[in-house]
Amino acid sequence: MTLHFIAKDPNTNGENCPTVWFDDVAQEFVVQGWKADEMLQLKCLESGSIPDSEAVVRLPARMIDVLKAVIEVAERSPVL
Questions:
Q1: Whole-model pTM?
Q2: CA max distance for the chain
Q3: Which DSSP state fits 37?
């Protein structure tokens, strides 16, 4: 696995905050975010089940530039 750190939430103290990486071997976005509360999970379940191997996480909209950056890294990946 080659995990490329992209960025943490720019409006936090830099500790324990939403973070985004890109794994160019697995061709996956890796996201650390806030756990969804029960109400959000129930709302998400209206679209289908959430397997035990998956989770719903939240990222603040202020991270849009971080998400654009990870997309740019993914597009430059030689495997795509």
A1: 0.81
A2: 40
A3: P
